[in-house]
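Supplementary Methods S3. Input chains for the assembly prediction are listed below.
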Amino acid sequence: MKTHTLLMPLDMHLHLRDGVMLENVAPLSAYSYSGAIIMPNLVPPVATREDLLAYRERIMAAVPNDYFEPYMTLFYKNYDKAFLESIVDEITAIKLYPAGITTNSEGGVSSFDIEEMRTTLETMSSLGIPLCVHGETDGFVMDREAEFMSIYELLAQNFPDLKIIMEHITTKEAVAMLDKYPNLYATITVHHLLLTLDDVIGGLMRPHLFCKPIAKRPEDLDALLSVALEAHPKVMFGSDSAPHPQHKKESCGCAAGIFTAPISLQLLTEIFDQFDKLDNLQAFVSDNAQNIYGICPEFKEVILEKRPFLVPENYSGVVPMFAGEKIGWAIESVD
Amino acid sequence: MKTHTLLMPLDMHLHLRDGVMLENVAPLSAYSYSGAIIMPNLVPPVATREDLLAYRERIMAAVPNDYFEPYMTLFYKNYDKAFLESIVDEITAIKLYPAGITTNSEGGVSSFDIEEMRTTLETMSSLGIPLCVHGETDGFVMDREAEFMSIYELLAQNFPDLKIIMEHITTKEAVAMLDKYPNLYATITVHHLLLTLDDVIGGLMRPHLFCKPIAKRPEDLDALLSVALEAHPKVMFGSDSAPHPQHKKESCGCAAGIFTAPISLQLLTEIFDQFDKLDNLQAFVSDNAQNIYGICPEFKEVILEKRPFLVPENYSGVVPMFAGEKIGWAIESVD
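Predicted structure tokens for the full assembly:
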């Protein structure tokens, strides 16, 4: 049987939530990944040293062993230099949300006034703290990411030493930015390597495929695949796995987010195998992230096997992508 | 209190379904409309004289009085001349669905071979039977209607005496067709005068605003409003009200269709009032259709009143648009 081995897989964009949900979903990521960038959009958002350390402790308590590193992030606000210097060793990045743009982002940035942000962003530059950005405007849903490119350009030009990660990119416009500015990087989810808007609303409407940013057009999917499959050195895997309880997905108003944590590595292997690019998966799912972030995850070896895997209907009440369907690869062992 | 009177309102595109659903929804349309074009996409589709007459009888049995005229349609197939001559007095139009494009359309047209369709369409021309068309290709969901324009052009050019109704148009491209071909007409729904894709998936995902064709871009909404509010003489109101049981809307795979029958006239009045175009509503909601189809509905006078109306959470298990929300106009009386 065909197998493929991955070393120290990393999920560079992960929502673990809190409380019972955290306890339910954290072990699923910890099983197959060496570490993950942990998003700070709790209620209230993670924005103090106390909250950050306490959240990290709750995460560590929820994972069954010590082979999983939660790379912690702060919720972006304008922070002063003293605070950033005091917390630099506890965080891996700071995550910026435009206000109200996605789940629990109400306290985000409401205007991109560079001068107001300068102290924070220059301090981050000098301390080597990357800025992760949810790059969407509040415009028409299919245009939001493309419209945000001018803000990425503004940030990239004004803070040339700041590493800026364009999170969960979904458009050819974002892909084109990678080669335009040396300090722009990107994460790509597994679902955005599989879906277009057609899958979400082209047949029946699929709430479990609804996420922000929404999956875009076929030419956007092609652009994402092109850089992911080649493991473009500025591109990393970040699942944006975003669990919601089933009743918040299948209702009058379905929350945005696709839950892929327990199947993302298998799906990535299937995609890269289908395109005969398995040799590039290690870079996409770990090496590029290590280089970009300068992190050294603990050893973990995941062996995947090419055999049908029936995705469970739910994990503790959270419906995953492809629930009840068969995917082409399974995890054989983790060491 | 401000009132507005409408005479013989007509809904030129209506799904009444069958069985218990028919019994539940038909009275709601019959209350406020003088008549409606009844879509034939039952399972199996309405394609024989027997089925048509039996369906008409079931509709008449479901409405509480004789003030409602169901203008019957056949499901488009290639019919021979003798059959069309035999049924012309029983039908108002024939409805063409591309195969598989929407609810219960599996038996529709799978290729637009003009020569194969010629006998049917020329006979319809000579008998004065309009062709109603669900104009979408099987392409990317946001492009399907615009891509279908070339088929409308093919039909309009080859059958210049055939009245072709572009049903439930949603794009500026379809609006532009109205002035390009004398034999192209259109219906517009009330929800497509209110929604863009932003309302469907821009915030939370809204299954009760999910329909086919999907609501498009802001510039498309503007184009639709421009011809509706002016009551362009080739444009008619057709609700495309499409009831589904609640569990088929709020689930893993939500069926397409928005249920507006009981509130469409109120919403139209609110829209035309907001744009200060109430004087044009009579033409949009009745007179244009009478002229285009050459029909003479029985007298009905509906008086609407400008006061808040709380839309019920559901009508016999069918969730309407704006369920539980207040709209700005209510029906005061029907005579």
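The domain at 3-334 of chain B is CATH 3.20.20.140 (TIM Barrel). The two ends of chain B are 19 Å apart (CA to CA).
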